[in-house]
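note to self: dont lose this again. the chain is below, predicted strucutre after it. 148 aa total, dont forget to put it in the shared folder this time
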Amino acid sequence: MAGRETVLYYSPNKDAKVRKVKSVLVRLGIQIKNISEEQFGEQVGTLAGLDDFAGKQPEEAGLSELAGKQQKEAGKYETSNAGAAVISEELLVLCNFTEAGLDRLLRELRKSNASVALKAVLTETNCAWNFYELYREVRREHESMSRR
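---
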């Protein structure tokens, strides 16, 4: 999954914090791919620009039957009264980062008072999940870690 450092970024807000986050990303030369509500059902790998996942079902992308079942289940997500999926928090998905690059980004976000609570690194496993399923998993992990 080598390539340019890229962040998939979703925020339900359009406020000063979003501008701070994007400012840090631009200053560090990190590509930003803004995610919209319409993209919640798309595979994270596809959103990140991985050709191997563009338009493929999980089984076609070389994933196990179990991963394929999880992907299909991921399409069933919480919705608002209008029927649209709901993500009420910011989420950063970090793609193609080295450990040093990741440390640098997190340090700069903290220094700029632009930290984002929900973050994930793109992996061979989660690249086949849809964006909403990744959010649900990151949210669950964050809640679990916060309770400790």
